[in-house]
Amino acid sequence: MVILNDFDTSVRKALEEIDKNYESYDGLVVCGTHTSKEWENIVLALKEARENKIPTLGICFGLQMMVVEWARNVVGWEDAQSTEIQLTAHPVVGKLPKLRVGVYAVGDRQESHWHNYAVNPYWTDGVLDKDWEVIRTGGIVEEIRLKGNQFFMGVQYHPEYQSSKENPHPILVNFINLCRKI
To answer: What was the pLDDT predicted at 127?
Structure first.
C-alpha cells in the first residue's frame, strides 16, 4: 500500500485497526495536506492507479487531485489545477469563502470535514457526472466514484477521524477488503 501526503497518521492508525496487514496490500491512498508541493507526483500516481485499476482512495486533497488528474488526462485540460497550487484557465478546485470545519451531513451520514478548498462546480458539473457517481451537499462535491472501476473513490471529508477499532468507518473497511482481494 502506498500512502501519499503528510496527513497520514490518523489514516494509518485507522487502517491498522481494520487490518494489521494493510501495508502489504496493493492500493493507493492520497491523504490531505497543508503543503501541496508533491502534487505533480500525486497526479502521476493517480493516473497510474486509475489506468491500472489499483484500488485508490483520495481523502480531502486526494479527492481534489483525482479531479485534477481526470481533467488533465481524460478531459484534456492540460492546465487544470487547484487554485491552492496555481492560478489557471481551468481551476477545477477552488478556495471556499470560509474554512469548512466540523461535522456535516453527507447523504444519511454525518462526516468530519476540515478543508479550505473544494471541487469547483463551475468547471466540473457535467464533466464529472458523465463518468463518475457524485454525491454533493449544498453544491459541494463530497464523494466521487469512477464508474466501471472497482474502487477508485475520493471523499472530501475525513473518514479516518470517525473510525475506531470498535466502529471502523465503512469506506475504509470496503477499501481494505478490496485491496486484500487484489
So the answer is: 84
